[in-house]
Amino acid sequence: MTAPSECFHCGEPLAGRAVQWVRLGDAEVALCCPGCRAALQLIAGLGLEDFYRFRTAPSVRPTEIGEWLAYDEPAVIASLCRQEPDGRAVILLIDGLTCAACSWLIGRALQRIDGVVRTSVNTASGRAQVVWNPDRVALSRVLRAIAELGYRPHPVTPESSHLQVRDERRAILKRLAVAGLGMMQVMMFAVAMYSGDFNGMDEAIRAYLRIVSLLVATPVMLYAGWPFLKGAAQALRSRSITMDVPVSVGLLLAYGASVINTWRHAGQVYFDSVTMFIFFLSIARYVEMIARHQSVGVTDSLSRLLPVTAHRLAPAEAGAIQDVTVGQLAVADRLLVRTGEVVPADGEITLGATRVDESMLTGESTPVSRAVGDRVAAGTINLDAPLRMRITAVGPATLLASIVALLNRAQAERPRVTRAADLTASRFLARVLIGAALVCVFWLAVDPDRAFAATLAVLVVACPCALSLATLVAVASANAALARRGVLVTHADAVEGLARATCVVFDKTGTLTQGTVTIGRCMPRAELPAHECLAIAASLEAASEHPIARAFSGAVARSVASDVRIVAGAGIEGVVEGARYRIGTRAFAAAGGAEAGTAAEDIAAKADDDAAIVLGKAGVELAAFTLGDAARAESARTVALLEEQGLEVQILSGDSAEAVGRLARQCGISRYRARQSPMDKLEHIRALAARGEFVAMVGDGINDAPVLGGSGVSIAMGRGSALALASADLILMGDSLDALPGAFLLARRAQRIIKQNLVWAAGYNLTAMPLAAMGWVPPWLAAIGMSLSSILVVLNSMRVMRRPAPTAAPAATEPAAALVGRSSS
Amino acid sequence: MSIVFVLIPLSLVLVGFAVWAFFWAVGAGQFDELDSPAWEILTDDDSKPPQPPAGGSAPP
Question: Pick from A107, A166, A181: which is nearest to B19 by CB?
């Protein structure tokens, strides 16, 4: 049997790790860490091993299960939970919920806890609602059960947005059903009337069919069509023109004329066109809503960035540790932040020295040293040693919250893509109304008997249905085509923005690079060759869960190290093939001998060696490793393809000039800026826009969120921070840049098809209108022409979807379920 | 042909019933989550009930 290369549970590479074998069913499976083993054994113990067959993405690596006792405090429960008739209900936002199999697993596991009344897990929104009986089970038990499965639950306050989303979805579904069923009925009557026109039909039956059509079309118009009418009224009140205005005028004209003709017992009725139009528009609205709901709300993102609980130290100096929720923290509280934990609030270190990963905030890839008196920001990760801190800011006063505020401002001020089609349609409409009035006056003067029929024909011929559908359907099918290629569209005007882009600006960390620490160079300092050093280092680091240690997991370990001792904040000591080695900070590795543990002070002194890891043997330095963040394999390829399309490519990064410059050379990008704060980035984007460039920004981090919000069109990496996802117009699923050049091409093709549609619809209207004005077009012919031009426009728009993109990305063939999946961890 | 004067109102009643049934289903939350219920059925027939280690009855 060949050895598996990846962990069965989380999919991490197994190379260089102490592999744990577990029997699952008839086979032995390999796991990378005790956390994964615990999760798998729990899943198997519950009889849920089918999860592994049905899931569509590897699970999240369970890092720390933790205690959730803070959630058993009555005050916390009162603020988070709702009283239901059969228990208490809480809404949990679950990190790592990537596919339908995950939600099935969580649902099943929770239902087996005695005292859980019912659960519902929603994959699309990443939320679960749990109703439990507080007399029989504690909330902390429920949360721990989810954490044990390898997910990370965040109880959220029962805010109204969740209910709003649900109600909007329900309302739009009901409208869709009314429009669809009504359309079928009216179409049936219309077919009868059309055949009656040719084969002869009793006038009584004709009148009867008209009245029945009116009866069915009226609820469709007033219920399913209500959002369009309301939107148009609102737009007119605020003296602006939206797509709703021409749509509503077209609907009201066709419906009004049909009502009058029904009442007159003469002429043509257009109820079939009215209901069909409303049905198509409702489908477009539904598709748009689904995409919108899939993007994460900003408030949700904030609660995901911070840990759920904090360890507060009691005021007394020798105080006990108390687990509280982050919401209970206040300024001047003293906290303990353990190794690997996220700092819950802004503060000042009072004890301890460590390195902090601030890449989420600053984009800087290497961890920075922090010691007593230094400030640490909420949302950063404590890497090396436990530290004690005093809080200086919580909640909205933190640096993190200020970035969110910047994002909100940038989004409010963003340069909107003007909807060209909206303007065309509404200008056209104004002219049609004036024209119809003139025709009416003319015929009243010449031949009053024909005035009504001719005016009506003009209005029906000129109905801007095709004109309004021209953009809507093309954009909807472009969105669907992009989704199939692994690009999720979350804003309505994203496609138009992509097509107009002239300049693509990339963030560095996590966008052009992989965003994880990898080994840069291995520099042997003694007689031992580089690959030997690397193998020994990998053996030692396999014992650790530290992010830096995981950089070595790509290297092939020699053998499993024995007698391993991990010194927090310093390094690892262990025996490999009979010899005792040390790896870690230079001070630790070169010290050798017996003494150790004073290293916490040493790293503060050795701040300049941050990026270097040293392997030592008995006080002799064997090799130094530089740590870096490697470029993605597809970065250079993507940049070349984009430049081939005539797009200007730039890098904006918060990282050092040296690191950015090296990457720019690797990817063949000549323009870059380093050491940019979120504000600097936003300024730069605005300067580009002022120069006439239309900027497409690609980013992933929290520090990119404001600039994503402020650029012409924004694209976030699917594995990026939740905040970046929330502020992006498009999301690259599948964690690869490969789909990007194809997306630009597809957007431009969609834009070309929209132009064709507009030319066709306007051309048809302009040629038919003079004929109608002369009274040569009978209203029934006008109605058929209107429907045909709408159908032609719809069919033409479908071409966006059909033709495969020339640069179809290999990574875009993920199953549809994975489209909803994203992890912010 | 006068039968249409009966049949069409009858069909409208049926449509009305269909709309009512759909509204009820939406209101009862049948359409709130369309992804995971499809997976439920896959696990019902071919998975074994949880096997307690030795002589135990139901899992806790």
Answer: A181
pLDDT interval class at A366 (50, 70, 90): low
Q: Note down the domain range covering A157.
A: 69-163
Q: Is A544 part of a structural domain of the chain?
A: yes
Write out pLDDT tens, residues B12-52.
999 999 999 999 999 988 887 776 676 666 555 444 444 44
**Residue B47 to residues A47, A51, A53, A73, A823, Cα–Cα distance (Å):** 8, 11, 11, 39, 29
CB atoms within 10 A of CB A159: 12
Q: How confident is the model at residue A299 (pLDDT cuts 50, 70, 90)?
A: very low
A608 and A578 in a single domain? The answer is yes
Q: Say if residue A171 is in the same domain as residue A287.
A: yes
Mean pLDDT throughout A599-614?
Answer: 47
- The answer to whether B5 contacts chain A (CB < 8 Å) is yes
For residues A194 and A142, state if they share a domain. Answer: no
ipTM of the complex: 0.75
The reply to whether A283 and A174 lie within a common domain is yes
A45:B26 CB<8 A: no
CATH code of residue A317: 2.70.150.10
A174 in contact with B, Cβ within 8 Å = yes
Whether chain B has a CB inside 8 Å of the CB on A212: the answer is yes
Contacting residues of B for A94, CB less than 8 Å apart? none
Is A55 inside any structural domain? no
Interchain contact A178–B (C-beta under 8 A): yes
User: Are A176 and A195 members of one domain?
Assistant: yes
Residue A83 within any structural domain of the chain: yes
**Total number of domains constituting chain A:** 5
Q: What is the CATH number of the domain that holds A534?
A: 3.40.1110.10
Domain C-terminal end among A609, A628, A647: A628
Residue among A47, A100, A122 minimizing CB distance to B39: A100
Comparing A115-124, A270-279, A363-372, the range with the smallest average pLDDT is A363-372
Q: How far apart are CA A162 and CA A500, in angstroms?
A: 34
CB atoms within 10 A of CB A161: 11
3-class secondary-structure state, position A731? strand
Q: Looking at the structure, do residues A684 and A587 belong to the same domain, yes or no?
A: no
**A374 in Cβ contact with A349 (< 8 Å):** yes
Q: Point out the least confidently predicted range of A76-80, A353-357, A364-368, A623-627.
A: A364-368
Phi, psi of A35, deg, nearest 5? -60, -45
- Does residue A462 lie within any of the structural domains? no
Strand ranges, E, within A544-679: 562-567, 571-576, 579-584, 612-617, 620-628, 648-652, 671-673
Exposed e or buried b for every residue in A644-658, given b needs 16+ CB within 10 A? eeebbbbbbbbbeee
Residue (of A351, A507, A480, A467) closest to A746 by Cα position: A480
Domain end: A714, A729, A747, which one?
Answer: A747
Q: Assess contact for A123 and A54: CB atoms under 8 A.
A: no
Q: Please state the φ and ψ torsions of residue A309, each to the nearest 5 degrees.
A: -130, 160
A90-109 pLDDT per residue, tens: 888 777 666 666 777 788 78
Residues A526, A510 share a domain = no
Task: Give chain A's mean pLDDT.
Answer: 76
| CATH, residue A509 | 3.40.50.1000
* CB atoms B36 and A173 under 8 Å: no
The residues, ordered by sequence, that sit 6+ positions from A799 with a Cβ below 8 Å of its Cβ are: A753
Residues A88 and A201 in one domain: no
- Indicate the pLDDT class of residue A768, thresholds 50, 70 and 90: confident
Q: Measured between alpha carbons, how far is A482 from B34 in angstroms, rounded to an integer?
A: 22
pLDDT at A823: 36
- Is A342:A383 a contact under the CB 8 Å cutoff? no
From A52, which residue of chain B is nearest by alpha-carbon distance? Answer: B43
What is chain A's Cα-based Rg? Answer: 32
